[in-house]
């Protein structure tokens, strides 16, 4: 449905390439599907996946709130009509000025993972609710976080006790299993670790209530991933197994909400054969939208709307004069042998982590433009 609506818009408006078109009705549908799987939970859409105002409005209309990571994301959500109570500041890396900005705009929920950040929260967001992010392993994730975020689980209870001592509201535990996580069992170790920390905090007189299971829900690019229902079933079972009383649950999906709602239309700039391989250069690449092709992590699906016939292997590359701007040279892709410069190529399920990662103008190439459809028509944002 969403691809049809997007292609109809592209053929009527012919907006020029490259561009991302997002069907916001699909965004709202995805939010509702995920909310149905976690009926007692609060959904906080991870704004970094796609911060377009029309996307934010669709999330709000479907009953979602927002996981924000910076003052600019807070401002965008409030401008889209969100109440500050629907926002949680999920980024553990923030300056005191960022915290003060969030607090001044009414944001009261924060995630932290280090004593330094906790001290800044106590100083600039007095009395705020704080969840401590723990590091969990999610080896199957296509884009894992490594060790950048999250304290060791053994340190969490002490941090929460310190939050309590500093006059903050020690709310609970957060974790993230890594983005594009195809294993619904990946949440269980984090849920189990959280339950232990709840119990340890109780012995210190600190009563926790919140479990933030993060994002990570995968979407089908070239390989199938579990359905929202399958993720929901395993995660709910893990919560039941480890928590005698169901905690307040928060989830922070980004990719699963917006990826499938977007299509990037691109144009072939050059087709060239070197050392026996056919190289196809598109007008979109690593720096103007396809950052997640780094290490060939996300294997997008490509469609050529105007050419049929025999296909052959290709290396896919972007338009800049940077040697790293190669999309896929190990992942096997085949495109029509008749493909020529000027042909249109569509990239499916490209609504998440594309335009939002686009550089300002590397090589003078502008950031990826986004057009949002609301009810099938162009949203009238500036
Ligand atoms: C704290 C936090 N929550 C949620 C998300 C969204 O994750 P995903 O897009 O995999 O659902 C991210 C992604 O980076 C994140 O850092």
TrEMBL record:
Residues 260-351 form the Orn/DAP/Arg decarboxylase 2 C-terminal domain. Pathway: Amine and polyamine biosynthesis; putrescine biosynthesis via L-ornithine pathway; putrescine from L-ornithine: step 1/1. Belongs to the Orn/Lys/Arg decarboxylase class-II family. Its EC number is 4.1.1.17. GO terms for cellular component: cytoplasm. Keywords: Decarboxylase, Lyase, Pyridoxal phosphate. Its cofactor is pyridoxal 5'-phosphate. Gene3D superfamilies: Alanine racemase, Lyase, Ornithine Decarboxylase, Chain A, domain 1. It comes from the Bacteria. Residues 26-259 form the Orn/DAP/Arg decarboxylase 2 N-terminal domain. PROSITE patterns: ODR_DC_2_1 (PS00878). The modification N6-(pyridoxal phosphate)lysine is found at residue 48. GO terms for biological process: putrescine biosynthetic process from arginine, via ornithine. One of its GO terms (molecular function) is ornithine decarboxylase activity. It is an enzyme of class 4 (lyase). The active site is at 321 (proton donor). It catalyses: L-ornithine + H(+) = putrescine + CO2. This is ornithine decarboxylase. Pfam families: Orn_Arg_deC_N, Orn_DAP_Arg_deC.
């Amino acid at each position: 449905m969403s691809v049809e609506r997007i292609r109809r818009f592209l053929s009527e408006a012919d907006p020029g390439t490259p561009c991302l078109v997002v069907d916001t009705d699909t965004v709202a549908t995805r939010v509702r599907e995920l909310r149905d799987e976690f009926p007692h939970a609060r959904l906080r859409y991870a704004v970094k996946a796609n911060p377009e105002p029309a996307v934010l409005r669709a999330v709000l209309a479907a009953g979602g709130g927002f996981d924000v990571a910076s003052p600019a994301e807070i401002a965008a959500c409030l401008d889209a009509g969100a109440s500050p109570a629907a926002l949680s500041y999920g980024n553990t890396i923030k300056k005191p000025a960022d915290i003060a900005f969030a607090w001044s705009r009414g944001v009261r929920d924060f995630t932290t993972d280090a004593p330094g950040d906790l001290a800044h929260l106590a100083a600039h967001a007095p009395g705020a609710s704080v969840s401590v992010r723990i590091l969990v392993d999610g080896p199957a994730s296509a884009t894992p976080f490594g060790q950048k975020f999250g304290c060791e689980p053994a340190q969490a209870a002490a941090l929460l006790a310190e939050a309590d001592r500093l006059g903050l509201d020690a709310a609970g535990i957060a974790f993230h299993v890594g983005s594009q996580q195809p294993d619904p069992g990946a949440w269980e170790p984090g849920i189990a670790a959280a339950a232990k920390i709840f119990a340890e905090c109780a012995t210190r007189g600190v009563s926790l209530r919140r479990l933030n299971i993060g994002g990570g829900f995968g979407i089908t690019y070239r390989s199938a991933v579990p359905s929202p229902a399958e993720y929901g079933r395993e995660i709910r079972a893990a919560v039941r197994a480890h928590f005698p009383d169901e905690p307040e649950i928060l989830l922070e999906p980004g990719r699963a909400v917006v990826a499938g709602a977007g299509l990037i239309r691109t144009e072939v700039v050059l087709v060239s054969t070197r050392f026996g391989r056919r190289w196809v250069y598109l007008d979109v690449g690593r720096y103007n939208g396809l950052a997640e092709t780094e290490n060939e992590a996300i294997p997008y699906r490509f469609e050529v709307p105007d050419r049929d016939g025999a296909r052959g292997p290709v290396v896919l590359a972007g338009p800049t004069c940077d040697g790293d701007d190669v999309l896929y040279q190990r992942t096997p892709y085949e495109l029509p042998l008749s493909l020529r410069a000027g042909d249109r190529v569509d990239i499916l399920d490209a609504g998440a982590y594309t335009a939002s990662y686009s550089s300002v103008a590397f090589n003078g190439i502008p950031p990826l433009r986004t057009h949002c459809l609301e009810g099938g028509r162009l949203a009238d944002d500036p």
